Amino acid sequence: MSRSFGSPAPTVNTWQQTIARFEPISLSEMDSVKLQNRVDTKYVFAMGDLPQLLEQMLPDYRLLHVEGRPGTDYRSLYFDTPDHRHFQDHHNKRSFRSKVRFREYLGSDLVYLEVKRKTGGGRTDKARMRVAAIPEQLSAEQIAFVHKANGREEQLVPSLWNHFTRFTFVNRHRPERLTMDLDLRFSEAGMQRPLGPIVVAELKQERADRSSPFVRLMRARGIRPAGMSKYCIGMLLLQRPVKHNAFKEVLLHLQRLRQAA
């Protein structure tokens, strides 16, 4: 039977409505799946895919709540050498490379200095120390921490800021976490560049497992893993004078996603 004129149209759940239906998990409950040494698999897709994807994830994942709310606003300040060695190592596809950043969990008074390293074989480890606030330059203690974590001494200076909202999902049945970053934007010296209506998802596992529910959902949608460094893309969006040949494919993919939105 056709719908009569004037009757309400069927409602379509927004991604925010679906987010609200996930069973929460607290920070203390999540301690067992910290996965500081892990395999990361990154996916990049359009916001338009998010509502249905979240609906399909409901049976298998819980959602981190911090102080009673889902989603945490982050801001990060990356440090690099004056000649952008960390960027260049990624551009040149070095198996062993690192990133140094301060990350603040806005609204919770939590700030960390983090050293994230690729250690070969696709594995990632992360060392971090809690600090009082994001500084304009590294202290002697922080310099010593970074040198010990990445195994080399080098001069580091502030490079760029990024800002985003992160939702963290925890698998109900296996040691697996999944983060989804939305509303990504990069800034320096009063200039800001948004990434656009794009989701950056990162699956964190003890070892790569293609039977993961999220991996299966991505495969069903034809979305393949995509290596995308937020730091490197931010450098390019801010038009920093660095090489970009290795990132042309990623930049084209992001442009297609924005055009499809």
The gist of it:
The chain has 261 residues and is α+β, with helices and mostly antiparallel strands. It is built from seven helices and twelve strands.
Description:
- The protein is of the alpha+beta class and 261 residues long.
- Helix content is 23%, strand content 38%.
- The chain is built from seven helices and twelve strands.
- The chain has helices at residues 15-19, 50-57, 85-91, 140-150, 213-220, 230-237, 248-260, and strands at residues 24-25, 37-46, 61-66, 69-70, 72-80, 96-105, 110-119, 123-131, 157-171, 176-188, 191-194, 198-205.
- The protein has an eight-stranded antiparallel β-barrel, surrounded by five helices.
- A hairpin with a 2-residue loop joins β10 and β11.
- The protein starts with 14 loop residues before the first helix and ends with a helix.
Question: Main traits of this protein?
Answer:
261 residues, alpha+beta, mRNA Triphosphatase Cet1, Chain A, disordered N terminus
Strands ordered across the widest β-sheet = 2-8-7-6-5-9-10-12
How far the N terminus sits from the C terminus, by CA atoms, comes to 33 Å
Largest sheet, strands/sense/barrel:
8 strands, antiparallel, barrel
- Please provide the ordered H/E string of secondary-structure elements: HEEHEEEHEEEHEEEEHHH
**DSSP strand count:** 12
Shape: globular
Number of domains: 1
| Overall CATH architecture | Alpha-Beta Barrel
The level of helicity is 10-25%
